[in-house]
Specification:
about 0% strand; mainly alpha
């Protein structure tokens, strides 16, 4: 019976390793996904800055064109001044020219503001380019390592399962089925030790004194009266180690 109990303890210890590897298998792709998201996010910010600069330049080109059109009108009106015969017409044309000149002054101010804005956008763009380069470098550095880890974890899980199954082959079929059911329905814990309060290490249920004696004898298989997990003496695990 001691050998049988020790085998169950060994199977559970391997099951714990499998659980650790399976949890790692879930985390590793998330780490890789996070690195890829960082690159994508940084790239989007770079594109956003470039669009802001492009829009800024396009708007300034419109302002430049407006200034040019106004200057052409002013030049045209200046030519017409010499042919004007009445003060009223002269005054009206002069007023229109002054209006166009004032408009150009205001547009020039907008152009200067636009140029300052563009400079700010370019500074932000450079900062975002550095962030993108950093994110890409981190992805390049860690991605391949993470992918290899994922492959290795899969191999480790399969290797552990092979060892566990070899142990299971030497046990009674009914016991293996019971073990498998507990693993499936009891959070992958079929075999547990007593906790510090002399209770079930799986659910904490207090173990009766007589059962404590039976567990210490290591000559029979004891189950928790609450959760059904197999209760064994921790000395078996220490001996196994």
């Amino acid at each position: 019976m001691i050998k049988l109990l020790a085998a169950l303890v060994k199977m559970q210890s391997i099951e714990d390793l499998i659980s650790e590897k399976q949890n790692l298998k879930k985390r590793l792709p998330l780490q890789l996904e996070e690195l890829e998201k960082n690159v994508t996010s940084a790239e989007q910010l770079v594109d956003e800055s470039k669009k802001l600069i492009d829009n800024n330049i396009k708007e300034r080109d419109k302002l430049d064109l407006e200034v040019k059109v106004n200057l052409e009108k002013i030049a045209k009106y200046e030519t017409q001044l010499s042919a004007i015969k009445t003060n009223k017409e002269y005054k009206a044309l002069s007023t229109e020219m002054d209006f166009l000149k004032e408009s150009n002054n205001k547009i020039d101010d907008k152009i200067l503001d636009s140029m300052d804005e563009e400079q700010g956008f370019r500074e932000i763009l450079e900062e975002r380019k550095l962030l993108y380069q950093k994110a890409q470098a981190e992805l390049d550095e860690k991605a391949e390592k993470l992918r290899k880890q994922i492959v290795q974890v899969d191999r480790d899980i399969e290797d552990y399962k092979i060892v566990r199954n070899e142990i299971a082959k030497k046990l009674p079929m009914e016991l293996v089925k019971r073990y498998a059911t507990l693993i499936q329905h009891k959070n992958r814990k079929a075999v547990v030790f007593l906790n510090s309060n002399k209770g079930c290490g799986g659910c904490g249920f207090a173990v009766r004194p007589q059962l404590l004696i039976d567990i210490s004898r290591k000559d029979t298989l004891i189950s928790c009266e609450s959760c059904g997990r197999m209760l064994v003496d921790k000395e078996l695990a220490e001996q196994e180690e």
